Amino acid sequence: MRHAIGLLAAAAALALAGCGHLELSPEGDPLRVVTGQVELGASEALPTDAVITVRVVDASNPGMPPEVLGSQTIKNPGAAPIGFRVEYRAEDEVLRRGLNIEARVSIGGRVRYYNLSRYAVTLGNASDPHRIYVNPVGP
Length: 139
Prior knowledge:
Blueprint: H1 2-17, E1 31-39, E2 50-58, E3 67-75, E4 82-89, H2 92-97, E5 99-107, E6 110-114, E7 119-121, E8 130-133, E9 135-136
């Protein structure tokens, strides 16, 4: 009986000794891409001087402006919905906290639409397409 307990203890010690080298959550490639569509609520074409800016930002530092991790500018986008593709860099740890997608539509150099709702990018949905709804500025 003592021999069996000794063997079990030795086997457990050997098994646990190797656990320090196991990578339980391997990091993914920090170079990432988020895709989706910007929705205006109307399918009419935007004027030719319209510009859409979509940004992936990290707003996790309170009191500091959000850090822009990637952006895309689309000039003369045509009719909504407008597809976007933003390349950005974020480690898995940052995506576990979550990032935000911001969209702005400028016409004639003035912001006319922006997203009121927060759109989060997380480790779980980073590869999914995102639909961003923008609202008109002011009355």
